[in-house]
Amino acid sequence: MYKAGINVLHIEDDPATIDGLQKSLTARNIFVKNAGNLKDAKRLIRNFDIDIILSDGCFPSAAHMPETKSFIPLLSFLRKKNPRIPLIAWSNSTEVHEICKKKGIPSYSKKPLPAARFRAKGRPFINVPSLSPEKMADVVVEKFQEASGLHAALKKHTFKEYYTEPSTILTFFMGLDARTALFKPTAGRNYGPILGTIDDGLFTIYMDERDDARIARSIYSKILYRNFFPKIKKEVAIRAKRLKD
């Protein structure tokens, strides 16, 4: 499954919490829409493509209304309108965590919830992980990968660190060949998907070792046999001249 972007609906009315999560998700190139009340959340769910919903437990039912346990009617709405959207609770409400445990919904808190708090509410203790906005953003990414089927698709393959060094033309070839018109002779005809990480100019490429022979043939065919580098140089020169003109 390929998506140009991940869209998260964050249902929360606390400005500090909204700002903290938005910065953490934006840093991961994830788009965030915020709804401060149940009415706005329903409107966004009806009218936008939402990949994941991250919801507080207590928020107003409509603008300028007091906070209430709107998580419960949100569940009912989702069940009718779009039960396929993954939902994550990020709340300090013991009742919300009790509901989530019964319904199998992942739930986290913004601050530690000790056993004494559950006892004071007359509820059995639930060990709820307390997460910062940064850690919550990591959970969102993980849940999206699970929902997209990526984890299941990769279970059949064994990946290992195959090629690591400062960025070179070879890693650019492997990583970008399928995505740019600059490499016209081979654009869109790469050997297949790769998993990669980029950290301070260091490219790490992960590939299934069973594809070694195919990768080797591809590199030989596209770079050596077809005299690839002069073709790139020629194409760049043509585009540069067009730009200058």
Helix share bin? 40-55%
The main β sheet shows up as: 5 strands, parallel
Question: Ranges with pLDDT <50 over ≥5 residues?
Answer: 165-169, 175-183, 185-198
Major β-sheet strand ordering: 2-1-3-6-7
Assembly of the depicted chains:
single chain
Question: How many beta-strand runs?
Answer: 10
Outline type: elongated
Task: Summarize, please.
By secondary structure, this protein is of the alpha/beta class.
Detailed description of the structure:
The chain is an alpha/beta fold and 245 residues long. Helix content is 44%, strand content 19%. The strands form three sheets. A five-stranded parallel beta sheet has the order 2-1-3-6-7. Strand 6, helix 4 and strand 7 form a beta-alpha-beta unit. The longest helix is centred in the C-terminal third of the chain and has 17 residues. The relative contact order is 0.09. About 11% of the residues have low confidence.
How would you describe this structure in keywords?
245 residues; alpha/beta; three-stranded antiparallel beta sheet; 10 helices; 44% helix
List the topology elements:
Layout: E1 6-11, H1 15-26, E2 30-35, H2 38-47, E3 52-55, E4 59-60, E5 67-68, H3 71-81, E6 87-90, H4 94-103, E7 107-108, H5 115-120, H6 133-148, H7 150-154, E8 159-166, H8 169-176, E9 195-199, E10 202-208, H9 212-225, H10 228-244
